[in-house]
Each structure stands twice: as structure tokens, then as C-alpha cells.
Design brief:
Blueprint (H helix, E strand, L loop, with lengths): L6 E19 L4 E26 L4 E30 L2 E29 L11 E33 L2 E26 L2 E3 L23 E26 L2 E14 L4 E13 L5 E13 L3 H4 L13 E16 L2 E17 L2 E4 L2 E4 L5 E17 L2 E16 L4 E5 L18 E5 L3 E3 L6 E11 L2 E13 L3 E2 L12 E2 L3 E13 L15 E9 L7 E8 L5 E7 L4 E9 L1
Antiparallel strand pairs: 1-2, 2-3, 3-4, 4-5, 5-6, 6-7, 6-8, 8-9, 9-10, 10-11, 11-12, 12-13, 13-16, 14-15, 16-17, 17-20, 17-21, 18-19, 21-22, 22-25, 23-24, 25-26, 26-29, 27-28
């Protein structure tokens, strides 16, 4: 799978995952359970070369990179929880949960690359069409990292549920202790046509060295920090559910409140919420629901760490006021059951912690300096479009934007009235300036339209053989150049995501049919399936690699997801 990427090299991934869930009834009132998970993932990568074609029909470009070095990442996660469930009488359930979670992330890489950017021949009448026409620039870079994150979380929790007539009460209280140790050591340099970026001011031609002293070389990016945190979180909730019916009309009403306190930033949060459902006695089966509430998202360690590795201990929880209106419609078509669901929502968010996506990393600004909103509609229909097998269609439309309160900037104009852009504008003499307030800009998750289809079918005379086809489409996510983490520039769009999958499965053994085979006779069901992911081999962009030349011009080189893949799976039930 990894070798289908643009970057050729030696991939050595190894993954171990063990999960366990065990319950034991001590008696009819007392049950004890254990949930455990161990995951150890190691990723070793020795890159060799990369070649990516990009650009437009007016400027077709090719990036070629020759690598040296390697990257070794290790991620270890351990989780264990013991649950005691006690039911002293009918309608009353008490749970006592103790859990421990530990994660160790170790990231090491020293990767050096020498790259060249070439323009390709665009004239289709020439024999050299698609070949390199001329070189636009060469350079090199070096990325180094020795990062290690060790986080441990311990918690004790009690949950309760009491049913009394037509109402049910839920409650809970939790204590959580967190120990985090983080060490970051990263640096990077970029060399373009023999000059370091950022380019230093040289002293060539100056007689007086004091007037123009020698400048030290400046690395493109340096990040060094060491952090140790110990903190405690306290949380609780209380919720009540009422159910009643009148004249064959069903109603439910839920009201609850949740509170939390974190001693690191000394923040106390209280969030109420309500929900109401109405099922009328109509000829057609409908159910309507409405919900509203105040929600808080307390920050964890990642949201507290800024781009320089500093920790903001005064950061507050992101606060959301939201409302949801939805409906369910159950109906029959072609004498088969179907269900159509619709949800319309609006969320107003305060104290937003902005972030940006760097390839597959999420980098937070570590400050509550934005307000945002999200609104949209989700629709889904599922049922037996083909008798005996279920299929579904879904579509979502969403818009989410944010406004940073401190992102104003100054743009400079030349004598021609043009905005001066470094590396592009020939006339760079400043004669005027304007202060610009960007206002609302798309959030990194602002994917306007999402569509998915999953359709199953089978051969009537051979029902054990099934096939399915899946279609996915999503409009492009926003992105921008990595210029000093200026969020207002992230208004460009990645091309839409498109994928087609197809699969076939065959039931080798069924518990409804007897078999004389001793090998498979001990199994209830045996399935074998073959799937082809990304059948049309579409190059979907996940992010961009930004390459800068000495003039300050940036080139956005796309990073593509994997191409066509084949998956073979055996499934046994016993």
C-alpha cells in the first residue's frame, strides 16, 4: 500500500494490536468486567526518490527529489479498565469504573533532500511533449527531529441509572489525574540555488564591516522545548428522561446538566442541554426531534502547546451553543422497509482554539482568539433496494467558518496601485498601505458537500455470492501557504475527493446448511471476500508540500493518497 505513493523508498511498518473484553457474573446482582487494549506500532521509512507532476495547463511543472536519511516513528498505547456493575434491585444499576491509559510517542528523523523544479513541454505537436523543457530552480533541505511524548491518565468513575415508572434518572461523577512529559527537538533548513532561506544580508562590497556586519545563518525552523505537567480533572453529570403517551401519540423529553473543573487553568464549566421527540399518530410513520444545549470542549495537552513548544496554562475550553432539528421517516417501497433521516443543525462557537494542518499533523495556536459557527444538513436513506440486502445513500451540506480577532495585516501598494507580492511584483516600491481585516474564513474542516453511496446486490440463483459498490465524493478542504502561520491565507481549496470501490463476497459455510467437511464443520459461518479500493485509480490530494525559491516564491506540490488497492479477507464465526 505504501509503495503506491509518489515517494519511492524502503517502507518497514510493523503493527501489533491486542484487544480483550471479559465479563464474569459473581452472582445475579454483581458483574465484574475487564476491557484491555495494547497497541504497538512502528514505522520505519528510508526514502529514495520522489517525482510529482503538478501545475496547470499553462504551467506544467515537475518536482524531483533525491533523498538521504531515514525516519523511525514508534507509538505505544496501553489501556485497561475494570468495571463493577451492581444491581441491588429491579430498576437500579450502579457502576464503578477504574481505568488507566498510557501512550508513548517517539518520533525521530534525519532526512536530507536535493530537489529540482522543471517546467514540462506543453506543446502536444512536439515529440518532446511531457518531457522536461527547462529548469526553474534547484535546492536542498534538511529536516531533523528527536521528539518524545509520554502521557499517563488515571481515572475513577461512578455511574448510576434508576428507572421509576415512565422516567429514568442518570448520574455520574469522575476524577481523572494526568501526567504528561513532552520533549521536542526539531529544526530544518532550506537551501535554494546556493542560498540559505531565509536569505541573510551579506557584506559584499562594504568597506566598513561595522556598517554591515557579518550575519549568522538562520535556520528555516527551530523548535526546542521540554514540558512536564501534572493536573486533575473533576466532572459530573445529571440527566433525566421522561416518556409518556397520549391519544396514541408518543413523547419523550430529556434534560440534563454537566459540570467540570480543571485545576490547571482553574476553569469551572457548566453545560445544560435538553432534547424532545414527538411521534404523531399519523398514517405514515414519522418521528420528529429537537435538541439544544451548551457544550464545552476542555483542551488536552496538544491544544495547549503553541508552534514554539510553549504551554499556555490559561487556555480555556471552547464553548458551543447549538441546536439540532431532525426527523425519521419509516416507510415501505416495493414491499420492503426503508428509513429516511434528516438533521438540520446550527452551532455558534466561542473561545475557539484555531489550528492548521501540516501534512498529517495538527498544529494548534494554543490561544482562544477566534469565534466560529457551523451550519448544515445531513440526509440518509437506507433499506432493501435489492430484497434481502441493505444499501444506503447519504449526503451532507455544511458550512463552517471562523473569525480570528487578531489577524489584521497590512498590505503595501506600489505606484501602479498594485498590491506588492514578494517574488511576483516587478515594481516593489511602496507608495501606500492598507490595513485589512480578513473577517470570517473557512475552518480546516469546511467541506461543503459530502456524498456517499453503498449498494449491494446478489445473483438470484446464487444468493451466497454478493457484490457491492461504494461511491464517495467530497468537495475540497481549504489550505494555504505556511507563511508565519497566517490563518487568513488558508482560503485555497484542495481538489474534490473522489473514490469508487467494488467488492465481492461468497458464503462458504452457513449455520443454516449442514456440511460433511470436518475442516469447516466446526464453524457457524465462513465468508471470503475480495475488494478493490479506488477502482478508477484517482489521484486524491491529501495535503501540499511547499517548496520555496530564493525569490520567496512558493510552489504547492500535491501529496497524493494511495492508488488502487486489492484487499482479500477471510471471516470465520464459531
Amino acid at each position: 500500500m505504501l509503495q503506491s505513493l509518489d515517494t519511492d523508498g524502503e517502507y518497514r511498518p510493523s503493527f501489533l494490536d491486542i484487544q480483550s473484553f471479559i465479563t464474569y457474573d459473581i452472582n445475579e446482582k454483581w458483574e465484574i468486567g475487564f476491557l484491555g487494549n495494547v497497541a504497538q506500532n512502528k514505522y520505519q521509512f528510508i526514502p529514495e526518490t520522489r517525482q510529482t507532476d503538478f501545475g496547470t495547463i499553462n504551467e506544467a511543472l515537475q518536482l524531483t527529489v533525491y533523498f538521504d536519511g531515514q525516519e523511525v516513528d514508534q507509538f505505544q498505547t496501553y489501556f485497561g479498565a475494570i468495571t463493577n456493575t451492581f444491581k441491588p434491585k429491579v430498576g437500579l444499576e450502579l457502576k464503578f469504573i477504574t481505568s488507566a491509559f498510557s501512550t508513548l510517542e517517539d518520533e525521530k528523523f534525519d532526512i536530507e533532500g536535493a530537489y529540482r523544479i522543471d517546467e514540462l513541454e506543453r506543446d502536444m505537436s512536439k515529440e518532446s511533449f511531457g518531457d522536461i523543457k527547462f529548469n526553474k530552480g534547484v535546492g536542498s533541505f534538511m529536516n531533523h527531529a528527536r521528539n518524545k511524548l509520554d502521557a499517563n491518565v488515571f481515572s475513577i468513575e461512578h455511574k448510576g441509572e434508576k428507572i421509576a415508572g415512565k422516567h429514568t434518572t442518570f448520574w455520574g461523577i469522575k476524577y481523572q489525574h494526568e501526567i504528561i512529559n513532552d520533549k521536542i527537538s526539531e529544526w530544518a533548513y532550506v537551501d535554494s540555488t546556493g542560498y540559505f532561506i531565509p536569505k541573510v544580508i551579506d557584506s559584499v562590497g562594504y568597506v566598513d564591516s561595522a556598517a554591515q556586519p557579518n550575519q549568522l545563518l538562520e535556520l528555516k525552523e527551530v523548535l526546542k522545548s521540554r514540558v512536564s505537567l501534572n493536573s486533575n480533572r473533576y466532572s459530573s453529570y445529571l440527566q433525566r428522561l421522561w416518556i409518556w403517551d397520549k391519544d396514541s401519540v408518543n413523547y419523550t423529553f430529556t434534560a440534563g446538566i454537566r459540570g467540570a473543573y480543571w485545576d490547571l487553568n482553574q476553569e469551572l464549566i457548566v453545560s445544560p442541554r435538553i432534547a424532545f421527540t414527538y411521534e404523531p399518530n399519523w398514517k405514515k410513520d414519522y418521528l420528529f426531534r429537537i435538541a439544544a444545549g451548551v457544550y464545552y470542549q476542555p483542551p488536552f495537552y496538544r491544544e495547549m502547546r503553541d508552534f514554539d513548544g510553549n504551554i499556555n496554562k490559561e487556555i480555556k475550553s471552547q464553548q458551543s451553543y447549538q441546536a439540532v432539528l431532525g426527523s425519521d421517516h419509516n416507510f415501505e417501497a416495493w414491499e420492503r422497509p426503508f428509513k429516511f433521516t434528516t438533521d438540520i443543525y446550527y452551532k455558534y462557537i466561542k473561545n475557539v482554539i484555531p489550528y492548521e494542518i501540516d501534512n498529517v499533523r495538527i498544529r494548534y495556536f494554543a490561544t482562544n482568539n477566534a469565534n466560529a459557527y457551523a451550519t448544515g444538513v445531513d440526509m440518509k436513506i437506507n433499506g432493501e433496494f435489492v430484497k434481502g440486502v441493505e444499501s444506503w445513500f447519504s449526503m451532507s451540506v455544511m458550512k463552517t467558518q471562523e473569525d480570528l480577532v487578531d489577524d489584521s495585516y497590512t498590505e503595501y501598494l506600489n505606484s501602479d496601485g498594485e498590491v506588492i507580492i514578494s517574488g511576483y511584483t516587478a515594481n516593489s516600491v511602496v507608495v501606500d498601505s492598507n490595513v485589512v481585516e480578513p473577517g470570517f474564513i473557512p475552518r480546516p474542516t469546511d467541506q461543503r458537500v459530502n456524498f456517499a453511496l453503498f449498494f449491494q446486490d446478489y445473483i438470484p440463483k446464487l444468493p451466497s455470492l454478493k457484490m457491492h459498490i461504494a461511491l464517495y465524493y467530497g468537495t475540497g478542504l481549504p489550505f494555504g501557504p505556511p507563511d508565519n502561520h497566517e490563518r487568513y491565507k488558508a482560503t485555497l481549496r484542495i481538489p474534490p475527493y473522489r473514490r469508487v470501490d467494488i467488492g465481492f463476497s461468497y458464503l462458504l459455510k452457513s449455520d443454516k446448511k449442514e456440511t460433511k467437511s470436518k475442516i469447516i464443520g466446526g464453524f457457524k459461518n465462513i465468508w471470503v471476500s475480495a475488494e478493490v479500493f479506488n477502482l478508477l485509480q484517482i489521484n486524491n490530494v491529501i495535503s501540499y508540500l511547499w517548496v520555496e525559491d530564493i525569490s520567496g516564491r512558493n510552489y504547492a506540490v500535491p501529496n497524493y493518497l494511495t492508488s488502487r488497492q486489492i484487499n482479500l479477507k477471510f471471516h470465520f464465526e464459531f
